[in-house]
Every structure is written in C-alpha cells, then in structure tokens.
Amino acid sequence: MISTLLSRRGGADGAPAPRLVYGADYNPEQWPRSVWEEDVRLMREAGVNLVSLAIFSWARIQPAEDVWDFTWLDDIMDLLHAGGIGVDLATATASPPPWLTAAHPEILPVTARGETLWPGARQHWRPTSPVFREHALRLVRQMATRYAGHPALVAWHVNNELGCHNVHDYSDDAARAFRDWLRNRYSTLDALNDAWGTAFWSQRYSDWEQILPPRLAASHPNPTQQLDFKRFSSDALKDHLRAERAILREITPGVPVTTNFMVMGGTKGMNYPDWAEEIDFVSNDHYVHPGPQDRDELSFSANLTSGISGGRPWFLMEHSTSAVNWQPVNLAKRPGDLVRDALLHVAHGADAVCFFQWRQSAAGAEKYHSAMVPHAGPDSELFRTVTGLGATLKALSPVAGSEREPAPVGILYDWDSWWASEQDSHPTTLLDYRQEALDWYSALLALGIRADLVTTRGDLHRHQVLIAPVLHVVPADLAKTLTRFVEQGGHLVTTYFSGIVDENDHVWLGGYPGALRDLLGIRIEEFGPLPAGESVELDDATTGSLWTDRVAVTAPGTEVLARYRTGVHAGRPAVTRRPAGRGSAAYVSTRLGVEGVTSLLPRLLAPAGVAGELPEDARGRVETAVRRDAAHRYLFLVNRGEQAVPVRGLSGDVLVGVADADGVLTLGPRGVAVLRQPLA
Predict the structure, then answer these.
(1) Which of 115, 164, 618, 670 could form a disulfide with 111 if both were Cys (CB 3.0 to 4.6 A apart)?
(2) Measured on CA atoms in the order 496, 502, 507, 511, is the torsion positive or negative?
(3) Residue 501: beta bridge partners?
C-alpha cells in the first residue's frame, strides 16, 4: 500500500516517483507566502516526495463557525503538486479553534479529579462529546469534498496522535458513553456485577445510571472497572477514527486512510493492535528517549509497529532529525544518529521515513524541536545530512513493498496484560511491563538473535520460541493456544506474574501461575515481591530483583535450570523448564535484567536450536533485521556501538555500505549496511 502511494504520480519531470516515501509534517501557515516556493525547491533538493499537511490548521481553515478559508491551502497544494511532492492531508481535527471552545466549553476534557483541561495547548476535546463530533465531522466533510480530485492528494491523515493528551476523559459525556459501552459488552447488570466482582465492598449496581468512570475515589477503585475503562477509552478514540474515516471513504473511496500511532516509551492508552484493523496502513511516530537502552528501545518500538501491522510495511509518520523540546534535557543527536535511526525503522518494515517537521518553527511550544530545515537554514550540517539520507532512501527503493521475514523468536506483547499488571492494589507498584519486555529484547540483540514483537492477534506458530514476559491476563482461549503451540513443537518462555487472571481480572484459583500452571508443571502459593533496592542471587551467577516466587515443581520431568542461592527461597527453583509434547515451557520467577537474561537465554533457546546468524565476532555488536519480497531477501546490518565492526562471510548486492575486495563489510560507528540476497 505505502509503496504505491506515489506510483500514480510522476515528478515534475514526468519520471516515476521513488517508491520509498520521504518527507515531513509541513506547516506553511506558520510562514509568509514568500517562503513556500523556497520550501518546495529545498524539498526537491533533499529528495522529499511527500509531506503531511494541515495537521493543526483548523483555526486557519475555519476562522469562525460559518466562515471557511481554503485559499491558502489550495495554493500550497498546487505548489507541492507542481514540485512533484505528494500530500498526506490531515483532517485538521486535532486541535479545536478558540471560537469553538468559547462557544462550547462542554467539549473540554475532564480529569479524574474533576478538573477541566482548558484550551491553550492542543487536543483539548472529549472523544465522546457529540458537540465536538458534529463540528469535527463537518470540517472533515468540507476537506474531503474540496480536495477529492486534487492530484497532490495521496493519503488521508485522520486527526493527529489520537489520545496523546486526551485518552482518559471522566466527563459526564464519557460517563454516558461508558455505560453504553458496558451495556454492549455485558448486556445485563447481572453479568456486569459478576465480571466486576461487585460483591466486594458493597459495589453491586441495580441501575445502569449508577455506573461512573473510575473518578477520584476514597480508596482503590474497582480493578475490573479500571480495566474496562481503559478498554472503553481506547474504543472511544477508535470510534472517532471510524467516524472520520467513514466520511473520507464516502467522498474519496480511492484514497487510503491512516492515523499516526505512538508506539514508543510509556504510551499505552490506545490498543493499537485493535486499531490497526480500522485503517488502510499503519503509521507511527517515534522519538528517542535518552538512556542506556535508547536505540534498543527504538528498534523495539519499530519492531512492535511491524507486529501491529501484521508484518506488512508501515509508515514512519514522525521522528526527529535531532533534539526534541519536551524532555528535561533535550540532547542533539550525534553524527550518524539521524541516518541510523531512520534506517532502523526501515529495517523493521517502514516504507516511509518522515520527520516532525520540515522547517523549524520560529514561535510556539515546539520552536526548539529540530526539523529538516533548522533555524540555521539549509547551509547547515543537519540539512546536508537530511539530503544525504534522501539519496540513501532512493538507493533503497528496491526494499519498498517487502515484508518482514519471520524471526526464530517472538516476544509476545499484550495490551490487556500491560494495562492490568500495572494497576493498583497489586503485590508491587514497581513492576514495569514494557521494561521487562524490552530487557528480553535487548538480551536477544546482545546475543545477535533476531526476534519479532508479536501480539495475540498474530500467528504465534510462525516462531520456534515464544517469550511472553509478564503475560498477566490469560483468558482460557489464550491458554489453549499457548498449550497447542508447545505441544506442536514450540518453546514457550514466560515470567513472574504471568497467567494470573482472566479477561475480567479475576484470579485463576488453585495456585499460581493460574492458567499456565499445568503447562509449566509448577505451583506457587504466594508471591514474593522484593523491596526497591533488594536483590537475590541465583546459583548460575545471575542476580534477581523486583520479584521472587516460592516455586514447587509438580510435573514429572520438569527441569530446574537455576535455583535461588540467597533470600527466603534459597535452595528452591528460580528457573524451570517442562518438556511437553514436542516442545517445552519455561518459567523465570524473578527479574534478571538485561545481563541476567543474556546469560540465561542460551539455555532457554537450546531446545529450539536457535543461535545468532552472524559470525561470532559480530554477534551482539551488530543488529540484524530481514525483509523479503517474492525474489529477494534484504539483510539490514546496524552497528549498535561506537567502534567500527567488520562483518565477514555475507553475500549479496550491497545497496547501502561498502564491501572491500574480500567481501568484508565494515560498519563504522552507528553505521548501517543493506544487502540484497536472492531467495533460494
């Protein structure tokens, strides 16, 4: 889909447009008309072939309720088309104009404490407000009608980062919509009372109107109410996405529709695997969070985006050329980071590489956020790097349209488990679901082993090994799927606090790990969380933190791979593995961190025969990712460190990078190489 966005449009010279998309958010309304023609010229110089337009333009397009001004947008659309640049046109609904919030303050979101979120920033709207919906859809219809036949239009961009600042609204509108959602989910109050366990704390409901969102309460709100509100909040935003999409498909049925996800960091309020089914192609925004695992997290997020997209190509809608503006300290990227960051996304399935934004703003909250054209102008090292990246992406055009090749290892990432495992009233508040998954991913990178981030909607049987960290929510059907995976020859690895509850957040009784107890061949009677700063030693020289379990082996043949050497469970099993059918199921009862998991993984992977694909001296130093089409395999090699790494023994056409006469590819610090190899 993405590789064909530009195929029906030639450039200004009539030549076919490049198949890999390259560009940025473009905000011409922030600049005088005299700048626009220079922008188009510089875009062509940089190799830009698509921009996202009108993202925050509602107040400019509709300056008053019955006043419309499209002349400026017509002008820039025409200019871009004349320059051979396509437009991913936003519906402009992300930020309501002042006249709308002044006339209708009832569209403003409300926090759990009852505080109104006022205008002055962005996304100040309730996803469930019928008033907002009416005005937003009126705008969408006007946009779609006006630009339905415009030759620059290649895709629609619904809203922008839906839910970034307004995912959880506790207003009266939200309360009414929540009740409707619950009626649809449970049908009867008896079923809801059973699912929510309302016999506890005298919470039984006798009328639907008694039900509210989990607003600020005297103590811990009902856990299932909290989990259902998270599900509802994601669905409310999805419903808005569908409402805008319906108008776009009605008026422009041939133009694909997307919206930009935020698969990065701690953004967890939106169930993106569920949303992915509503759009024509998946798009994502990603920004690096500085830290010891910063580029591993980038790779992890890009990989997860590919998993959400089902392995199909996706669109990197936003990332940064250098510093952002919203972190405590906003660090500029080092030489090589800009290109490596972009190509890591391509390695994991992106067919489009776009930035926020094209020209760095001179005013506003994001004026210190980097852009393709910085404050220093085009005579800058940053713009020269941007132009070089454009040339590299052109060289990589054969990769466009190729899909991800399944890796031997899958890491299961589950939104319900993420939401539920971090709720209050649990054994510890220190648990970090995403960090645990990232640690396993970093450990696999350190061993030079390819892994895919997958969701429960994907085909789990495509992998030899499935790692399911903190798989807290396990409905009966998922337990059967995992059992079948193992019996048919797969190897499952799971961890502490997994298999504990069903889809209603009710504990599976009879001992932990609940739904996975029989498959794993163990039984745990009581959790053993550790205080912050405390750790235990295992007899394999690794160290555990955060959590321990008093594990009893219950099934014959279950192996103990490691025992606790210190702590209250000294001498008891810490890591186990049970052969089952043609596969095996392993359990890790403590948080080992990247170093500990790296040490343990070879033993966990041994039954599947999984090992690194690169020569020993490059494993862990170079990340690999593979895409393939009907005829070729595209091997990406990314230097994870600061020292040059030679990679020997690989064959294929070098699309990016340079091989010497002996076929040795040397990756410079933060360097990337891409090989095209024929499929056998």
Answers:
(1) 115
(2) negative
(3) 473, 507
Strands (E), 231-278: 257-258, 260-261
Residue 268 has pLDDT above 70, yes or no: yes
Question: Which of 550, 604, 611, 610 lies closest to 577 in space, CA to CA?
Answer: 604
pLDDT band at 198 (very low <50, low <70, confident <90, very high): very high
Q: Are residues 304 and 358 in the same domain?
A: yes
316 domain-assigned: yes
Same domain? 332 vs 465:
no
Angstrom CA distances, 222 to 196, 219, 583, 609, stand at: 7, 9, 39, 45
The catalytic residue among 244, 318, 436, 623 is: 318
Q: Is 318 a catalytic residue?
A: yes
How confident is the model over 110-119, as pLDDT tens digits? 999 999 999 9
Confirm if 658 and 665 have CB atoms less than 8 A apart. Answer: yes
Q: Which of 6, 23, 20 is nearest to 256 (CA)?
A: 6
To the query of whether residue 366 is one of the catalytic residues in this protein, the response is no
**pLDDT above 60 for 11:** no
Number of domains forming the structure of the chain: 3
Cα distance from N-terminal residue to C-terminal residue, the chain: 26
Query: Which is catalytic among the residues 161, 244, 297, 422?
Result: 161
- The closest alpha carbon to 260, from 297, 296, 285, 228, belongs to 285
**Any idea what DSSP says for residue 158?**
-
In order of 169, 180, 225, the CA distances from 185 in angstroms are 20, 9, 13
Range of the domain at 229: 18-183+214-400
- Angle formed by the axes of helices 381-395 and 33-46, nearest 10°: 50
Average pLDDT over residues 355-377: 98
Q: What is the DSSP code string of 487-544? A: HTT-EEEEETT-S-B-TTSPBPSSSBTGGGHHHHTEEEEEEEE--TT-EEEBTTS-EE
Order of all β-strands in the sheet with 653-656 = 403-404, 622-628, 632-639, 672-678, 653-656
Element (H, E) at 583: strand 583-588
Which residue matches tokens 């309730």?
126
Residue 22 and residue 352 in contact, taking contact as beta carbons nearer than 8 Å: yes
Helix, strand, coil percentages (3-state) for the chain, rounded to 5, are 35, 20, 45
Q: Are residues 368 and 507 in the same domain?
A: no
Any idea of the CA torsion for 74, 77, 80, 81, to the nearest 10 degrees?
Answer: -100
What integer pLDDT is reported at residue 662 of this predicted model? 86
**Pair (320, 427) in one structural domain:** no
For the beta carbon of residue 431, count every other beta carbon within 10 angstroms: 19
Whose tokens are 């790097």? That residue is 385
- Cβ(292)–Cβ(641) below 8 Å: no
Q: Tokens 């020993």, residue? A: 616
Together in a domain, 434 and 388? no
Contacts of 257 (CB under 8 A, 6+ apart): 155, 156, 158, 245, 248, 249, 279, 280
- Per-residue confidence at 16, pLDDT binned at 50, 70, 90? low
Arithmetic mean of pLDDT over the chain: 96
pTM: 0.97
